[in-house]
Write the structure tokens for this entry.
Amino acid sequence: MLKRLIPLLLAGAMLAACGSAEPTKSSTLQFFAMDTYMTLTVYGEGCDEAAAAARDEIYRLEEILSKTEETSDISRLNRGEALESLSPDGQEAVEEALARRQETGGAYDPTLYDLVELWGIGTDHARVPAEEEIAEALSRRERYDLGGIGKGFATDKVVQLLRGLGVESANLSLGGNVYVMGSNPEDGDPWRVGLKDPEDEQQIVGYLDLEDQSVVTSGDYERYFEENGRRYHHIFDPQTGWPADQGLESVTIISADSSMADCYSTALFVMGLEEGLAFCEGREDFGAIFITSDREVFVTENLRDQFVLTAEDRGYHYG
Ligand code: ADP
Ligand code: MG
């Protein structure tokens, strides 16, 4: 039987390609939140209500974590209000972000608000700043930008909510963050998740079969601007203040913990291949797939049985 392929990062409509058996009821919602397109598909009894509740949960968390919404927890924190005055979810997100900064030796850093504003990538005032401006922004790390954890954090909360509602099967795509819950109700097999080709969003580089796992990619191709033929993307090296430039096109993290996967995909993209692989050493709670600018693909040992490379014809090869 043909497996359904979930194109990672592609918020496309999903078809119910069923055989003769009665199709499982499903509900799909597509909407814009947290600055990206999201697609949630929930299966089984009560799927309409569950999908709507999941969407509302994302809207609720967006109001807490947004750095632009004046009334959000993060805006209040950035205006100097105490962490203890935030909602439990706001506090939890900030505390996790700070712990992830520690774990990743600062490669993931949730306090780059001023640097991110300075570059303005993804806005109409994107520009290459002067070195002095970069140095100044780096010296001011008092304000939070949870752009590198928010979608993962929201994914974990939505999964919790759906489980509480008795949902057994769902697939969630929050922009670059995918979570597949349970198995595919059509055939009981794991979900097949495609890894988008960083150079061609219509294609995939390979796929994995997964249950109850999150798949999160950070890449240099999602948000960027070009000046004098150079590309400047939105993931910054907190040491230099410049877009991370370690010869990687993307890092994908696979883990049951989506907020961890979100932070780590950003962090390992900053670290680069060598340091990133060393970071993964001995870890069983996540796996990683690195794609270099030379189309080399590196897969951590714990994923080698699951990952299938399908883009050899386009020059992708194991490194
Ligand atoms: P995306 O948001 O496209 O899924 P990421 O999860 O990698 O990608 O997060 C990138 C966002 O996180 C940036 O838009 C910015 O707001 C913020 N950011 C950029 N560099 C870092 C970094 N080194 N650590 C933490 N957050 C970062
Ligand atoms: Mg991330």
